[in-house]
Design a protein that fits this description.
The protein is of the alpha+beta class and 175 residues long. It is built from six helices and seven strands. Helix 2 runs antiparallel to helix 3.
Amino acid sequence: MTPSARWAPATAAASYIPRMRNRRMRRGALVLAAALALAAGCGEGRSSHAVAQAFQSAPDAPDEVPRMVNREPPFRYPAALYARKVQGNVTLRLLIDSGGRVHADSTRIDESSGFAALDSAAVKGSEELRFVPAKLRGAPVAATILFPVYFRHPEAPALPGDTILNRRGSAPESK
């Protein structure tokens, strides 16, 4: 097999991948292209089992996920948005160390509420979160989690999809 034929799958994918709109699809296509190129480049003496082991180098998933220990959520509703009854959801990506503390410098907004003040309040409040750390084989380990923060005004109408959130003092409507 010639070297150019060996890398053909990666070359063909490289011309198509930048045109993909979805970032996750692009990333998956790049991984697939790399896997195809690696598999095509396997010579004699290198089994498919060895190639599979090379791709299984990801860290082990924890046996136990982190658990929040705060009695009350530490998030402060921005006063100006509360007065206007603005509501929203923010999803944070948090790195929790083996001691159960959130690494503030690694906190990221995974999904924005669409309101910068709500997003900022969520990030700021996450610094006060405390967790029982994740565990792998009984030992505490660092873990990254997605953490949803819901900002809800008691007098505002429910947002679409809020049926899973139980509002205080409100019973589900029956027809």
